[in-house]
Amino acid sequence: MRPRLGNSVDPREVELKFHLPPGSRATLEASPALAAAEPKHDHEVTTYFDTPDSVLDRTGLTLRVRRTGNMLTQTVKSRANERGVATSRSEWEWRIGQDAPDVGRLAETPALAMAATAIKDRLEPVFVTDIRRTTRLLHLDDNTVVEAAIDEGSIEAGAACEPVSELELELKGGRIGPVYRLAADLQALGPLWISPESKAARGWHLRTGQTEGAQLAQMPKLRPRVQAAAGFHDILGGTMGHLTANIGPTLRGDPEALHQMRIAIRESRAALQLFEQHLDDDAAARFNAALRRFGEIFGAARDWDVFCLETLPAAMPDLSAERLEDLNVVAEVDRQLAHAAVADAVHGHDFTAMVLGLALWAEAGATQPSTLGDERMGKRLRTLAPSLLDRAAGKAKQRGRHAGRLSVAERHGLRKSLKKLCFDVESLAGLYRSSAVENYRVRCEALEEVLGLVNDAVVTKRLALSLVAARRPDLAKPAGALTRWSGRRGRKALQGLKPALKEFRAAPTFWS
């Protein structure tokens, strides 16, 4: 929502942002929702400012001055500070009378006073956006008002330049649910994909060559008396926000951001599985299938990242006489192909449709729990949590029976169950005493770590042999040496399986 001008304590901006591929604008503007509203056209030239040592960027703030006709507006924004599919950030605006920032306005705002002191007399322009903006004010259901803005133009940082073509849907009043519905309707008509990366983040990338880093998961802070449907909304909204927050850096080649997207997909599936007894079977199965499909695409790329960027470098000092460098060159080709498949998936229709569908379903359930499934989603989550956690822990314990006789597939199944259980425990932690939760979580993670090391050896063998079989039989010797090296590490890790599993099984269930 657009903040008031001046020094409000924490004014908010809530919006959805999409990339518009060439040719999609006309289709969107012909849609009933946009065609019914009067368009307003503006030319906006915006200069972003910071100090030579990037004080504002390092503290998570951007400062800009925008010229629209004869009007100058100074704006300070935070990075997104609430996690969801729609980005939410703090935003302050002032009308000013000059092209340079008025730092005094920041000094008058309590939340920005320290930043004002740090940047006084030190600001310089860092990049500029030149945008032709078309806005429409839309009135949706439930008294929701949204500004739909189509931006076309460029971002310029010195000699570097990047085009801009995007749709922004900014909530002006009401609830975010109708905005998700509008976005889903528009996305069904033409090609557009969700792209939360801000113009400021893109500008900094042009200026420095560095991308905004990977975004870690933020666990929801559930209140003890929260309703189950509201808890589901917060948990799933957090995983979807985690997923979308990492789109920009992933597409710019950040391996850790890709890793975080894979985690977010897995944890979204864990949230569905945690609540599945009380969810609509068809909806849950449909979303789970979509998440599984994208999880396989992201997982393949992650496996190649680990192989090329972690396993091979770790093995090279021990296997210096082998041709691991040659193996790495061939593996890098497969890694790049896997990353290209990730980009294709994110740019495709189905990925954004899945994200919007999950967000819309969870948002609707937060106000009408019956839309999620059975009536128990309207009860307090604290009353359902013991049965939910019993079920998740029971699966892990069942798969961990007979630790010494587990096959490779059975160990992998146990590892997946543990990852889901760890997420479930963290998600519901706000309902219980923190010390009891921490004790249980530590034992889960210790067992999960052992299984992860063992799994790494299995994946290394599979990928190394696939390179030989598919293209380079001459690399059979280094591939074999790498497989044996990794296998030794896996067998060493496997020695810790029984003790870690014993500790896990003995952990007191804090939810009982």
Largest sheet: 8 strands, antiparallel, barrel
Secondary structural class: alpha+beta
For the record, the CATH architecture of the largest domain stands as: Alpha solenoid
Percent of sequence in beta strands: 15-25%
Specify the number of helices: 18
CATH topology of the largest domain: CHAD domain
What pattern of helices and strands is seen along the backbone? EHHEHEEEHHEEEHEHHHHHHHHHHHH
For the residues shown, what is the average pLDDT?
94
List segments where confidence is low: pLDDT < 50 over at least 5 consecutive residues: 1-8
Shape: globular
Question: What does it look like?
Answer:
The protein has 512 residues and is α+β, with helices and mostly antiparallel strands. The protein folds into two domains: 12-210, Hypothetical Protein Pfu-838710-001 (Beta Barrel), CATH 2.40.320; 251-506, CHAD domain, CATH 1.40.20. It is 54% helix and 18% strand. Helix 10 packs antiparallel against helix 11 (281-315). The longest helix has 37 residues, at 434-470. It is globular, with a radius of gyration of 25 Å. The protein starts with 11 loop residues before the first strand and ends in a 6-residue tail after the last helix.
List its salient traits:
CHAD domain, 512 residues, single chain, Hypothetical Protein Pfu-838710-001, alpha+beta, 2 domains, 18 helices, 54% helix
